[in-house]
Amino acid sequence: MVRKTENISLKGYNSFGVDTSADLLVEWDSVESLVEWLRSEGKEILSGRWDILGGGCNTLFTGPYRGVLIHSISNGISIVSQSNDYVIIRAEAGHLWDDVVEWCCQQELWGIENLSAIPSSVGASAVQNIGAYGVEAKDCIESVEVVWLDTLTIGTISGAECAFGYRESIFKHELAGKVIITAVNYRLSHTPAPKLGYGSLQEEVAKLGEMTPLAIRKAITTIRNGKLPDPAITGNAGSFFKNPILPREQVEALKVLYPTMPTYVVEGQPDKLKIATGWMIDSLGWKGRAMGRAGVHDKQALVLVNLGGAEGCEVVALAERICKEVKEKFGVDISPEVNIL
Length: 341
Ligand code: EPU
Prior knowledge:
The protein is of the alpha+beta class. The protein has 8 helices and 20 strands.
């Protein structure tokens, strides 16, 4: 089924809760219906302005969207294959990410439990390579199913071909505008492999007295709920900015000036280090402060919030001010993780 709605309010379609509209929203629930619609109307639609709207949890609309938003409402999780060790599961692009995590944890499958409680959709998990608590979606993505927009054929892109990086993938670059993701296959394991090295996770899990994917999920949810605002109550898109990955010498020079600045090693990039944007924004005194109806969350400075009725451009104005101050004080360019439309 394909549902088309003209001049639609986007308030319920973005976690920032920005009240704006789109000229047309096209929602699809199966690959067949998507391909059929693309065959009949796709050419004309795709020659104008269009974007794919995932769960809307990483998108900020700065005004009425003058174009077509394509949004998956496909749902479903299934087991594709399994061995003694591994299970490959397939989830439809529109499925809620956290439902996939919960389903896997309930089956005692290991791999994505650290990615609990992230507001996202399955499709976005691959585009954004979502990550938290020492795990990234790429660690488990076996392959991504797509529709190629030039030929309207169905294809599969292996995890290795996705060019995953920190909040990066081929879908943001070479394949942007060329494919629509229809499903993602994840490789999970029956073998326990807890990853508890990040922050206070180990202590939080120890309090629960068991070591299962569900216990880790519970611990992560507790930690996240303590720091991150619930988008159903306070509009936000999780981390607004990325953590910059910089040459090691630049970070070492910053460490001399700011010895408490947190730094992280980056897998596969020994000459670089990642620094914490939240820490920099916090040390500028922005935590809990507001500019108009947009603000900086009082428990995690990396998160910008809609304090009620904010327009997207107000959030952007706050973000720009913060970027400028970070540059002035630390000499570092920070960039948004959020997709600004
Ligand atoms: N920090 C502060 N003040 C703040 C925020 C952070 O001092 O206001 C410090 C923390 O104390 C810590 C360091 O900065 O030493 C890093 O903070 P945290 O562990 O909270 O993680 P983050 O770097 O701010 C990243 C991800 C989050 C993910 C967490 C946990 C990015 C852009 N964000 O945040 O992902 O949940 O690590 O793994 O990489 C998201 O992408 O939406 C998201 C929430």
